[in-house]
Design goal:
Blueprint lengths: L9 E6 L5 H10 L3 E4 L6 H11 L4 E4 L8 H13 L4 E7 L2 H11 L29 H17 L2 E4 L5 H13 L6 E8 L10 E4 L20 H8 L2 H23 L4 E8 L5 H13 L4 E6 H6 L1
Parallel strand pairs: 1-3, 1-4, 2-3, 4-5, 6-8, 6-9, 7-8
Helix pairs in contact: 1-6
Length: 305
C-alpha cells in the first residue's frame, strides 16, 4: 500500500482482556470510526486495501490474544505498513490484575485464555492447566501479559484500572483527536493512595510540597481554583519544582520526537489528586501547549464529574 492508497487513519486497539476494549471501540465508533473487532492480523493488509477502495473513512481495529498464533507476526506487519505510509496508531489498554479479577468476577465471563486454545504460541504453558484443560484466571491474565508484552512496548498505554467507562470514552476521543504533531504530550494528575498509573512514562511526586488540604477554606477546592492557585504560587519550592520539571521535559522532548514516539505521558502525583498534582498538570500544560500538542487528564477529578 502506498501513502496515497492508505486510509486517512487507522487506530489499532489492543490490550489485556477486561481492560475496556469494547468501551474504547464504542467511543471510536461514536467519533466516526468504522470499527472491526478481533480481526486476524493476517487479514489486516487486505482489509485496509478493500476499505480504501470503498471509502476514506477512519478505521479502528481491535486485536488481542484471541488472535492466537498470528500475534508474533503483527509487529512486523505494523512496521511494514508504517514504512509504506499507512498512519497506524496503536493504543494498548491495561489494568492491574486485582481490577481485572474483580471485573471478570462481576461479569461472570470467562477469560479467553482460561481454556486451552489450539493456536501456536498459546499452548506453551501446559504446567498451569488443570486436569480438565482449564487455566486459573490469574494465570490466564499473566499469560496474556506475556503474549502481548512486545505489542505493549510499541503502543500508547492507557491504564484503565481507576477509570469509569465515561472517562475511558473521553480519553479515547482525546487521543485520536490529537493530530497534526509527531508527539503528543499528556499530563496526568493522580492520587498515590489509588496507585501509580500504569501508562506513565515519567512520574513526579509532589507530596513533599505544602498541601492546601490542610487549609480549611481551600480543602473543598481543587488545583484549578484561583484561591488554591494563589496559595501554591506563593510557595517558593512549588515554583522551583515546576521549573525543574519544565527544564527536564524541554531538554528531552526532542529526543522522544526523534525516537518517533506518538505520546509521552507525564504523571504528577500527590496524596489525594485534588490540589497540588492538578495545579502542576494545568500549569505545565499551559507552558508546553505552544511547543507541542498537549492533553490534560485528571484521574481522580475526572472520576467525580
Amino acid at each position: 500500500m502506498s501513502e496515497a492508497a492508505s486510509p486517512r487513519e487507522v487506530v489499532l486497539v489492543t490490550g489485556i482482556s477486561g481492560s475496556g476494549k469494547s468501551v474504547a471501540l464504542h467511543a471510536l465508533e461514536d467519533a466516526g470510526f468504522f470499527c472491526v473487532d478481533n480481526l486476524p492480523p493476517e487479514l489486516l493488509r487486505e482489509f485496509l486495501r478493500v476499505e480504501h477502495a470503498r471509502s476514506e473513512r477512519r478505521v479502528a481495529i481491535a486485536v488481542d490474544a484471541r488472535s492466537g498464533g498470528s500475534l508474533p507476526h503483527l509487529l512486523q506487519l505494523l512496521e511494514e505498513l508504517r514504512g509504506e505510509g499507512v498512519l497506524i496508531r496503536s493504543v494498548f489498554l491495561d489494568s492491574n490484575t486485582d481490577t481485572l479479577v474483580r471485573r471478570f468476577s462481576e461479569t461472570r465471563r470467562l477469560h479467553p485464555l482460561t481454556q486451552e486454545v489450539p493456536h501456536n504460541g498459546l499452548s506453551r504453558r501446559k504446567d498451569d492447566l488443570s486436569p480438565f484443560g482449564h487455566r486459573a484466571l490469574v494465570d490466564a491474565i499473566e499469560l496474556e501479559r506475556e503474549l502481548l508484552s512486545e505489542l505493549r512496548e510499541v503502543s500508547t498505554v492507557v491504564d484503565t484500572s481507576q477509570l469509569r467507562p465515561g472517562q475511558l470514552r473521553a480519553w479515547m476521543r482525546d487521543l485520536v483527536g490529537a493530530t497534526g504533531s509527531r508527539l503528543t504530550l499528556v499530563f496526568e494528575s493522580f492520587a498515590f493512595k489509588h496507585g501509580v498509573p500504569l501508562d506513565a512514562d515519567y512520574v513526579f511526586d509532589v507530596r513533599m510540597l505544602p498541601n492546601p488540604y490542610y487549609i480549611r477554606e481551600l480543602r473543598p477546592q481543587t488545583g484549578r481554583d484561583e484561591p488554591v492557585i494563589r496559595y501554591l504560587e506563593e510557595q517558593p519550592e512549588v515554583g522551583e519544582m515546576l521549573s525543574q520539571i519544565e527544564v527536564f521535559l524541554a531538554r528531552w522532548l526532542p529526543a522522544f520526537e526523534d525516537d518517533q514516539r506518538s505520546y509521552l505521558t507525564v504523571a504528577i502525583g500527590c496524596t489525594g489528586g485534588q490540589h497540588r498534582s492538578v495545579y502542576f498538570v494545568e500549569t505545565l500544560a499551559r507552558r508546553f501547549t505552544a511547543r507541542v500538542v498537549t492533553l490534560v487528564r485528571h484521574r481522580e477529578l475526572d472520576a467525580k464529574d
